[in-house]
Specification:
Oligomer: single chain
CATH topology: Neuraminidase
Helix content: under 10%
CATH class: Mainly Beta
Radius of gyration: 21 Å
Number of strands: 19
CATH architecture: 6 Propeller
Structural class: mainly beta
Largest sheet: 4 strands, antiparallel
Mean pLDDT: 81
Low-confidence stretches: 1-35, 279-283
Length: 283
């Protein structure tokens, strides 16, 4: 559940926009109207995007089966909310689902082995397999864009740090190393950077580093907590949660930390932000 320390990211949904190109039709001496190539390509792209959208799924966590075991399980549904199906079923909590880029796998947290570990399963819930195995908590899996790596948070070395492993659980490696908590990793769309939250400077701030852990750089700097970074699909922006104005609101900034701007403004808490995978097309 993403409100705990390694449970990441948070609530903005970017607008999904698809511009349909309109071809130019013309007549000359009663000749048949010919469809422009660009128009045909645009229509085909639009139909392809609509097909992909209709085939898309949403994974989520729910405690709805209270009569069975009363704990959190992973579910999946169509984008219109239909066909809600449970994927996990055990007496321990399963949470924080994260899709692989190809949509074939889902990584998630589970307490089924008495402490929180990271598991992976097929998109239909089959083939559930544990990827991490140690007495400490491992959580908040985040896939690399190519699907070959998973970044996660772990307290196996005494406090929460950012780690990375191969998608099969091998090659687990620590990327951050300091006495403070580092958590909520988020890969950039090009796979070159990982944004994360750290308390190394006394309160929660957003940092970014290279995917190998080098060049760790702070992006936010104020006395209030800033946390749970989420990259825009083009890699140019990062959304995050901040309490700098008295309560938690959603903010956005450039990938280098400049031009930090508040997006929400109300007395309630805003969080659990996540960008849509589609960019708004501009004519």
């Amino acid at each position: 559940m993403r409100n705990s320390v390694g449970v990441r990211k948070a609530g903005l949904v970017a607008l999904v926009g698809v511009m349909i190109g309109v071809g130019v039709y013309g007549c000359k001496k009663e000749e048949p109207v010919r469809e422009g190539t660009s128009t045909k390509q645009s229509i085909e792209e639009k139909l392809s995007e609509e097909k992909l959208y209709k085939q898309s799924k949403i994974a989520f966590t729910s405690s709805r089966d209270v009569n069975r075991n009363g704990n959190y399980e992973i579910y999946v549904m169509n984008v219109d909310g239909s066909e809600q199906t449970r994927l996990t079923n055990n007496r321990a909590a399963d949470s924080d689902p994260s899709w692989s880029p190809d949509g074939k796998k889902i990584a998630f947290n589970s307490l089924r082995d008495r402490n929180q570990e990271i598991y992976v399963m097929n998109a239909d819930g089959s083939g559930q397999k544990r990827l991490t195995n140690n007495p400490a908590r491992d959580e908040a899996p985040s896939w690399s864009p190519d699907g070959n790596k998973i970044a996660f948070a772990s307290e196996r070395d005494g406090n929460f740090e950012i780690y990375v492993m191969n998608a099969d659980g091998s090659g687990q490696k620590r990327l951050t190393n300091n006495p403070a908590r580092d958590f909520s990793p988020s890969w950039s769309p090009d796979g070159k950077k990982i944004a994360f939250t750290s308390t190394r400077d006394g309160n929660q701030e957003i940092y970014v580093m290279n995917a190998d852990g080098s060049e760790q750089t702070r992006l936010t700097n104020n006395p209030a907590p800033d946390a749970y970074p989420s990259w825009s699909p083009d890699g140019k922006k990062i959304a995050f949660r901040s309490k700098r104005d008295g309560n938690f609101e959603i903010y956005v900034m450039n990938a280098d930390g400049s031009e930090q701007k508040r997006l929400t403004n109300n007395p309630a808490m805003d969080g659990s932000h996540n960008w849509s995978p589609f960019l708004v097309s501009e004519k």
